[in-house]
């Protein structure tokens, strides 16, 4: 968890998810968030986008190697399993059952997260380029 001043175009009240825009698993996660985030709590940006790159630089994260989702929530940056569980807390109740796994110590959770993240292209595939949001979802993405 990193605490910094807010990156450009991100407000303190914003909850922003950065995800790998060419990863099929990550795109599926973004679509899942859009579908079930009925209160439109989250904004999103791919790590490959201009805004995503600015945010990564702001938090001193690598801008060319993407091994984790990044969540910005109330001025704090969360990564790996901590980011995942912070997002799940805001989803409908039926998905919150997964929070039971938050009792697993963070180093073990993050090790498991890394196994999936490091093999996500092999397991789920990769797009040749970032998939652009459709017009209905466009307002959910940072520009």
The total beta strand count reads: 5
Mean pLDDT: 87
Which sheet architecture does the biggest sheet show? 5 strands, mixed
| Proportion of residues in helical segments | 25-40%
Radius of gyration: 14 Å
Strand order of the largest sheet: 1-5-4-2-3
**Euclidean distance between termini CA atoms:** 24 Å
Helix count from the secondary structure assignment: 6
Element pattern in H and E: EEHEHEEHHHH
Task: Return the structural class.
Answer: alpha+beta
Beta-strand residue fraction = 5-15%
Shape: globular
List the uncertain runs. Answer: none
Whole-number total of structural domains:
1
Please explain how this structure is put together.
- With 143 residues, the chain is α+β, with helices and mostly antiparallel strands.
- The protein has one domain (2-137).
- It is built from 6 helices and 5 strands; from the N terminus they run ββαβαββαααα.
- It has a 5-stranded mixed β-sheet, sandwiched between helices.
- Strand 2 (15-19), helix 1 and strand 3 (42-46) form a beta-alpha-beta unit.
- The longest helix is centred in the first third of the chain and has 13 residues, at 24-36.
- The model has no long low-confidence stretch (mean pLDDT 87).
């Amino acid at each position: 968890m990193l605490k910094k001043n807010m990156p450009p175009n991100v407000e303190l009240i914003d909850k922003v998810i950065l995800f790998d825009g060419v990863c099929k698993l990550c795109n599926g996660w973004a679509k899942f968030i859009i579908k079930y985030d009925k209160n439109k709590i989250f904004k999103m940006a791919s790590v490959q986008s201009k805004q995503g790159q600015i945010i990564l630089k702001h938090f001193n994260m690598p801008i060319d190697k993407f091994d984790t989702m990044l969540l910005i929530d109330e001025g704090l940056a969360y990564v790996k399993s901590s980011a995942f569980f912070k997002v799940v807390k805001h989803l409908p109740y039926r998905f919150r059952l997964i929070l039971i796994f938050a009792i697993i110590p963070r180093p073990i959770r993050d090790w498991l997260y890394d196994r999936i993240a490091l093999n996500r292209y092999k397991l789920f595939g990769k797009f040749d380029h970032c998939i652009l949001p459709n017009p209905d979802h466009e307002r959910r993405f940072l520009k």
